[in-house]
Design brief:
Length: 50
């Protein structure tokens, strides 16, 4: 039997900021939320905020 424990509560009251990124490997520009995003074109994780 597998158990994952009790449920937890997350409060998301603010707005998520969408950043524009550029892939350092292929040059593709894309939008995303968070860190360590993967480029939608080449799947590289080598991107930076534009």
């Amino acid at each position: 039997m597998c158990s994952v424990g009790d449920m937890f509560d997350i409060d998301i009251s603010g707005e998520a900021k969408v950043n524009e990124y550029i892939c350092r490997d292929c040059g593709k520009e894309f939008k995303g939320i968070g860190k360590n995003l993967r480029c939608p074109a080449c799947h590289s994780m080598n991107s930076e905020v534009k």
